[in-house]
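Good morning N.,

You mentioned wanting to compare the apo and holo forms, so I went ahead and generated the holo version with iron/sulfur cluster. This is what I fed in:
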Amino acid sequence: MRSLDPSEDNPWHTLAACRRDEAGLFFAPSKEPTAARLAREEHAKRVCAGCPVLLSCREHALAQPEPYGVWGGLTAAERRVLLARRRRRATESTLVPVQLERGRIAG
Ligand code: SF4
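and this is what came out, ligand included:
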C-alpha cells in the first residue's frame, strides 16, 4: 500500500485527490457565470477537504503564488486575502520591536 506521507520519492502532487480532475472542477472555463463558478468551487473544496495533501498543496499555491483555480481548499481570491494577512503580520512582527526600541509604543 502506498504511503500517504509526501516525500522526495513520493511528491505531494502524486497523492492529490484531484489528480484526475475529469470534471474540470478546479479551474474555471472561460466566461463562467458567477452562480456556476460558486457551485463549482464549493464542489472542488469538498474534494480538497478529503485530500491527504491539502496543506502541502495550499502552501505550494501560496508560495508560487498560483493565480488561478482552487488549490488546497482555497480559491484564488481567498489565497490573495491569506497572503495579504501573512504579509501584514510579518510586517507588524518586524515593526513592533523597532518601535519598542525607539520608544514609540508604551510597554
Ligand atoms: S488539496 Fe485540493 S487542489 Fe490540492 S491536491 Fe488536494 S484535491 Fe487537489
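Residues 12-101 form one domain.

Happy to go through it together on a call whenever suits you.

Best,
F.
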